[in-house]
Write a structure and sequence with these properties.
Helix 1 crosses helix 5 (195-207). The protein starts with 5 loop residues before the first strand and ends with a helix. 30% of the residues lie in helices and 24% in strands. The longest helix is centred in the middle third of the chain and has 18 residues, at 83-100. It is an alpha/beta fold and 210 residues long. It has an 8-stranded mixed β-sheet, sandwiched between helices. 46% of the residues are buried.
């Protein structure tokens, strides 16, 4: 059962249909695509951080599109440790371009999904207008192969994350010319009790410029 304003979709992916939820926004052509955390640890598009990212973009008037990677929920296929999930993301982005006439793309991801979002951006012909990574997986995934990033990025990182090492994230973006890293004191990986300040910072990033 979808909530008011939400549309359940099945998008053609590389290994079969991908389950997705679309919310249509007031700003024509402004679209936010959001990638969820690692399914091996139970990550889905219903994750609280993913939902916070969706609400932030929606409240700014963007259409939002979150989806389940292969093997998650009703999405076909099996977990592919990042490689196939990047292909899934690119398929969803292609669907959005075709059906939503994207003129301004916001690409967001949390944890494993942060790596996927960055990797997908690196394979696109045009860098997203906004790339926001929350606690991106820079050690367990081959993030170093994406460097140097081809465009600007904003990173949201809890200072006491016990899943993704904060120092590894700081180091991964220290030499990126157009990277902003926002640190959240006393904040763990899932931003428990910190979703309101996370929403405020992401809103600031998405609402600026363009």
């Amino acid at each position: 059962m979808s909530r008011a304003g939400e549309q359940n979709l099945m998008i053609d992916g590389p290994v079969g249909p991908l389950e997705a939820i679309l919310t249509e926004g007031e700003r024509e052509g402004v679209v936010a695509v959001i990638c969820h955390p690692n399914p091996v640890q139970g990550g889905t598009m219903q994750n609280k951080v993913v939902h916070t990212l969706m609400r932030t973009a929606r409240d700014l008037g963007a259409s939002t599109l979150r989806f389940n990677f292969r093997g998650v929920g009703a999405s076909a296929g099996e977990h592919d440790h990042g490689s196939g999930e990047v292909d899934d993301c690119l398929a969803v982005l292609e669907w959005a371009q075709t059906h939503l006439a994207v003129r301004e793309l916001w690409l967001l991801g949390f944890s494993f999904g942060g790596y996927v979002a960055a990797a997908a951006a690196s394979r696109m012909t045009r860098w997203p207008e906004r790339l926001v990574l929350v606690a991106p997986s820079v050690e367990k995934q081959a993030f170093h192969l994406l460097k140097p990033l081809a465009g600007p990025v904003s990173v949201m990182m809890g200072e006491v994350d016990d899943v993704v090492a904060p120092q590894a994230v700081y180091a991964a973006f220290a030499d990126e010319q157009d990277a902003e890293v926002v640190r959240f004191a006393d904040t763990g990986h899932f931003f428990h009790g910190k979703l309101v300040p996370l929403k405020a910072e992401v809103e600031r990033v998405l609402g600026g410029g363009a």
